Amino acid sequence: MSATEEIPQEPSDGPDKTGFRQEWSSVFVGTPAHCQRRLRELAFAGELAESRFRSVAWKLFLGVIPANPKLWMRVCSRDREHYEKLKEKYASRVFKDAGKKQALAKSYSADVLDSSTESNGSSGQQVPYKDSDLRREIDQDVNRTFPDIPFFNDPKIRAMMCSILFVYAKENDSILYKQGMHELLALIILVLDRDQDAFRQCIKAKTKMSDRVFTVLRSSYMEHDAYLMFCKLMNTAKVWFEHKDSPFQQIKYKLWSSGEVDAEFSSPGLRKIYGIWDKLVKRHDPQLHAKLAALDIQPHIYGIRWLRLLFGRELHVDQVLQLWDAVFAFDLHLSLVDHVFTALLILLRDKLLPADYSSCLQCLMQHPKAFQASAIIPRALHLADSSEFPRPIGFVDYSQCVDKQKSVPQLLVSSHRGPDSPQKFQRNTPKHSSPNGKYAQPPEPAAAQLGGGRSLSLSNLFSAIMGESNPAKDPVIAANGHLNGRPVRAAAAAA
């Protein structure tokens, strides 16, 4: 099919009581180039939140299915069969039923070894990595995935996540499984399930659809599709989970404007964070950059979590999904992440500029989830390409701002609606999901306020930095396997 060849209409016979077929045709009828352009526009405008085909859009953005819909059935069949073969390959190692604790305990005690290895310190000796340890680590993380959302408490969903993560780890032994991957996978499965819920309602209503639609939205292949989407996402994101100490990968950065302090980084994730910090943040908001540098707050302390989880803990879940719409639509390399990182920091500047060290950490690590994606996306797009994406309403250019006493417009939006949020962004829950059902999210408690010059206690400081109770495993600052960075030690001493 050429770029100008029309995609055929879906069958029009039979009732369309739910409007499903009409909605599909409004997006997927036309040339492949037109469909891609239309989906990108919907993603950047936040309108995929209302769509029953968000998962299909993500598959297109991530390259899981080709732009030509005529190839969808063949590609889906081939790739789903490949996942089935992988599950059979690791049949003795994959979680059969994560909901049955006895089965899990028996599986763990089997102590099965495989060919995966770990480096044993500086000796270079290779030590067999136990499948039972890998499965235990995955299971522990999966069981605490978004515990307040009923959907993720379903044993079937947990078992599905464990299977996918285990197979991925076995197929990617250079990275295996790292904490934080489960949260990326969880949101992919959530989107797939929501779309398939809507599709099941259309089947009950006897809506006539083509074989192509049935194939791409078939619920019996949700696990297969989640694995394929996760793999495509991790093609770019997996390097952010690496911690390597090879001297050949060390890059020196001169960081703080107040001193000639050099830092060496071997982790690709750290290199990316400091690249964003030194190139984008410094260029777009030198005043904020200088403020945090003067306080010696290194960006990896909060940036590792932002990067690895794709801002998954910084916004409400539905706002995260809306943010991912734009990130996936921008390009396959997830390069919009750099500008989202910068935009989020600038949105926090009102609270950061007048704050002391402890208050800045509190703001960066436990700020209230009061931002909407509709406030972040237009700013990030404009920062990425000002020629294509015009300056959004309320956007302030701080690149020439040097007066530290200059008043700054309030850019923090409420959890309901910001001054520059158009009406079309207001619905956060897709129309085909129940706000009180399995996708329901608890109300976000108000963030604790930290007064003026008060310091955090030592325990509260580490709690703020880590984001959860297990410091050694949290993706916030677990890079290189230890608590990384001088500001953490300095803050601990100060507390």
How would you portray this structure in words?
With 495 residues, the chain is mainly alpha-helical. 48% of the residues lie in helices and 4% in strands. The chain has 20 helices and 4 strands. It has helices at 20-28, 32-44, 54-62, 72-89, 101-109, 131-142, 155-171, 181-204, 211-216, 222-237, 268-284, 286-294, 300-308, 317-330, 336-347, 349-352, 357-366, 373-384, 458-466, 486-494, and strands spanning 113-120, 125-130, 251-254, 262-265. Strands 1-2 form a two-stranded antiparallel ribbon. A two-stranded antiparallel sheet has the order 3-4. The longest helix has 24 residues, at 181-204. It starts with 19 loop residues before the first helix and ends with a helix. The model is unreliable at 1-12, 94-128, 245-263, 403-430 and 444-495 (pLDDT under 50).
TL;DR of this structure?
With 495 residues, the protein is mainly alpha-helical. Helices cover 48% and strands 4% of the residues.
